Amino acid sequence: MGQFQFLRCAMCGDRIGVYEPIWLESADGTFHRSSYLNLGDYPGHDPSRLWHLDCLIPQSGPST
Question: What is the average pLDDT score of the chain?
Answer without folding.
Answer: 84
